[in-house]
Amino acid sequence: MAGTRKVIDCRRFPAEKPCTIAISGTEDEVLELAVLHATTVHGHANTPELREQIRTLLQDESAAAEAA
Question: Helices marked H in the chain — which ranges?
Fold first, then answer.
């Protein structure tokens, strides 16, 4: 499986219901799971705007590990 793995870590974002979920995988995998998480756990609506916002928050896994 070629390509850069992506990651998103819910701990990095303010929320009414804080959580510790981190998701990593391909960009498409992470986006789909992050949208599912945002809608079911945090009550966001599944909109094109939410998907684009989440996509902009994805990090390369190697860069996220270095920043941790």
Answer: 27-40, 48-57, 61-67
Q: Which residues pair with 24 in a beta bridge?
A: 7
pTM for the whole structure: 0.84
What's the full length of the chain, in residues? Answer: 68
Distance CA 31, CA 48 (A): 12
Q: In what order do the strands lie in the sheet with 6-9?
A: 22-25, 6-9, 59-60
Phi, psi of 8 (to 5 degrees): -140, 140
Q: Tens digits of per-residue pLDDT, 5-64? A: 999 999 988 778 889 999 999 999 999 999 999 999 999 999 999 999 999 999 999 877
Structure tokens at 59: 């990090």
46: its two tokens? 């599944």
